[in-house]
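Protocol step 4 of 5: obtain the predicted structure for the target chain.
Materials: sequence only (see below). No template structures provided, no constraints applied. The aim of this step is simply to have a reference model before the mutagenesis design in step 5. Sequence pasted as it appears in the construct record:
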Amino acid sequence: MGGWNTVVGMVNGLMKDLSITVPVALHVDHGGAVDICKDAIYAGFTSIMYDGSHDSIDKNVINTKIIVDYATPLNISVEAEVGIVGGTEDGVTGGVNYASLKECKMIAATGIDFLAASLGSVHGDYAGEPNLGYDEMVEYSSKTGLPLVLHGGSGIPDDMIKKAIASGQAKINVNTEVQKAFSKGIRQYIEEGKDQITTGYDPRKVIGTYAYKNMKKTITEKLTLFGSTNKA
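Step 4 output (structure tokens):
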């Protein structure tokens, strides 16, 4: 697919060709190394999430500060994670735990813009109902002075999402539900035999008939739920 420069060039080209006037953010999610985040910054990404949660808190603080120092002069926002969000993310599996407020304050002191504190959410599918720490969300956001980021937003009931937003979550990551909507559309297309009709095997038709529409519908529903519709 290419690297950071390929993605930036493609997105900027689409914005120009389609006359997009709504601000578009290019965000790196779970950047696990300083060099990776640095390369994305200089390629033109506008937002960086450094994930040093698997390291010691001291190393996490040091590396987060390095990235903040790279990003801030370029007006690029930085998100950092404290505590390990459970579930599976790119093949990494972990349990559920709550981040330490003390460690969150240490990361906040580096000058980040958003705090991804592990407070009960998991990546991927939930086994039972999520156990989100709403009181902790309010406390952590208040005592760090930062908006929170909820990773593992897929599968959380709507009422719990709304309560999380009211408790300080300003950015919610949803991936699993969008991917499932895509794969469901591909499956429907193949099961209906549309790929066997004339040029139905064309990838543009395979993706565009159901998969793209399913993804768009899911994303639109999430934007409405989050209160983000018609906002930039």
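Step 4 remarks: The radius of gyration is 19 Å. Residues 203-226 form the longest helix (24 residues).
Proceed to step 5.
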